[in-house]
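To: structure subgroup
Subject: Chain for Friday's discussion

All,

I'm putting the inputs and outputs inline so they're searchable in the archive.
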Amino acid sequence: MSSTPYDRQTSFALFSAENPTSQQSGTDLDAEFNAVKLAMDDTQQNLAKIQDDDGALKRGSVGQAQFDSSVTLGFAAPAQWESGVLYDANISTVFYNSIFYIANTTHTSGVSFDASKWDEIADFTAAAAIPDGSITSVKLASGAVAGDKLADGVVANSKIATGAVTNTKLADANVTYNKLDAANVAVPLANLLFPAGALMPYAGAAAPTGWLLCYGQSLLRSDYPTLFAAIGTTYGSADGTHFNLPDLRGRVIPGADNMGGSPAGRITDAVAGMDSLGDSGGAQSRTLVTANLPPYTPAGSNGSISVTSTNYTAQSTSPISGSAVGGGAQVSVPVSPGGLYGQLTSTGSGPTFTGTPQGGTSTPIVTVQPSLVLNYIIKAH
């Protein structure tokens, strides 16, 4: 701030002394008055910079640089209150819980803040309360808020407008899981990893949150709309408002033979009694019947044939004929003219075959593969 110095242009007294009968030059008078005006205007402009309209020193016109080093302002620059610090009366100032204090007693601070040793200068509590959602990206200059300017935990989700913090605003690896709200993040994240209808073995006795055990229970469609949209009534339904979960009690899970629309022919309805999504079949044991055995011809040997003869008296004048015991060739005995007299008696028994019982007692065959029993759970939402 500088002023134009007034430099007198003409000495009117000298001119009059040297030229007592001459008139003063109007041009010289104008030049002189103009120089005076310029100096006065410059002075008024500079004075307005340090003086208010009421004549007092202009507010804000004097700063620390205007004072000599021997001059103090009466109190030190404020800092956050800390324990174990020596504070000077009427000098030391602190911030505590958004209130500006000056010490009224020289003391060393204890473990907790003692309000009796401080006088309140200003309360910034109201100023510190930021309305929810008021901090938007347009309110912050690029790079204005650095990480070291924010105390841990001071930025709550409610203070940030929706969409204000985009992916480009976050430094890589700066958002850790403990900074996320589990209630609002864990469930959506789980839904991305495991969609409704996802099925998995589970070693626990009770299903975790968001999952259900699969024992064929009936559920309301309105309670589980996402799950119903995924599996529908494939596994049955009680009525038009319910649907059933898969009943996996005591069952293993094969892949649907017609998965993708092209049958593989590995598990067919004709043989296994199941092949499509939702079909069930199989049993833990089977009883073999004759039809399950390959064809075979049994082998064996006959016992001996015995013939017993007894006396028999016969007399005939005609030839005697008959058949062998058990069937066979005809036997004819000629008789002489005088007749025949003799005795012949024979008895016999046919052959017999005796077998020995073989095999077991028709006990069903266990068909269960080596197994470990677990629960099955399905993603519910």
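Points worth raising on Friday:
The chain is about 15% helix and 15% strand.
The first strand starts at residue 79 and ends at 80.

D.
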